[in-house]
Amino acid sequence: MKRLRAILLFFVLAAFVAVGVAGWMAWRWTDTPVTMQADKVDFIVDPGSGPQAVARTLNKAGVAVHQRGFAWLARYLEQDKLLKAGAYEVRQGDTPRTILARIAGGEMSQRQVTFVEGWSYRQIRAALRAHPDIKQTLEGVSDAQLLEKLDVQAPNPEGLFFPDTYLFNPGNSDYEILRRAYLAQQQVLDQVWAQREEGLPLATPYEALILASIIEKETGHEPERVRVGGVFINRLRVGMPLQTDPTVIYGMGDAYQGRIRKRDLQTDTPWNTYTRSGLPPTPIASPGRASLLAAVQPEAHKFFYFVSRGDGTSQFSANLADHNRAVARFILGRNP
């Protein structure tokens, strides 16, 4: 009888030890870095995914995770009901516990796309198409359909998207990012319009946006933006054509090959400010905040003309005679 009791006690103790060792090993596994096929692995948790489905996704992505162990850990930590759909990443050194906490906490990975000041709408769309992590939903969608989707009353989408760097989760759509850029532009434009000077020959925020886009394309020299804005405001006030080459280039479209000829200046388009007075019908690019401010807070001066000096700055003139001398000097290389 004593022998039987000893045997039973041995097996009970052995079972307890086995359970303890198994528990210790399982707990150690939760804090052991996972094996990965790369330094960083991206994966997407689909809506409605449970812990085992997440573990299967991780394994398919190249992250070795025990499915049942991952599900057990999620239930033990009461995180199995907290898993959030979205894009995530696993980094070297991550453990099952840290991966689970990241998904339960919704700490999604992010990417970025940058729209540069002065870019056209065509360039913005090209950047969206070229980004591998952006879901493409606008192929075949016309400009008019996009504007309707955005609930915008405008002739075309040009200039409506604020140039900035936008963070997003992999799988976000091109439309979602464009909508954010549109709302950002509207917010900035509203703020700038509220700060406009009195008596400007600009009737609406959209007209300020048009003028700002011209300023954006005319100079990259920050201190001169307000002075260039003042030149165009002076011209608008007296009914003088703006005569700005970037609008001509925009109106030429694909016909522009890097050079403007005399016949291009004489060929009428809605954007040719040599053949038409006033502002063109739409912006010609996406202006940044500095150009928007220059449009509504221009420098007060008597200049009506300016020409590039060739070093990024411009020579400003109050009359045509002085302007012609500046052109001869800086463009034609003569010193009259």
From TrEMBL:
Keywords of the record = Cell inner membrane, Cell membrane, Cell wall biogenesis/degradation, Lyase, Membrane, Transmembrane, Transmembrane helix
Q: Record keywords: Transmembrane helix included?
A: yes
Which species is this record about?
Orrella dioscoreae
Q: What is this protein called?
A: Endolytic murein transglycosylase
Q: Which NCBIfam families match?
A: endolytic transglycosylase MltG
* Catalytic reactions of this protein: a peptidoglycan chain = a peptidoglycan chain with N-acetyl-1,6-anhydromuramyl-[peptide] at the reducing end + a peptidoglycan chain with N-acetylglucosamine at the non-reducing end
Single GO term (MF): lytic endotransglycosylase activity
Query: What does it do?
Result: Functions as a peptidoglycan terminase that cleaves nascent peptidoglycan strands endolytically to terminate their elongation.
State the top-level EC class.
Answer: lyase
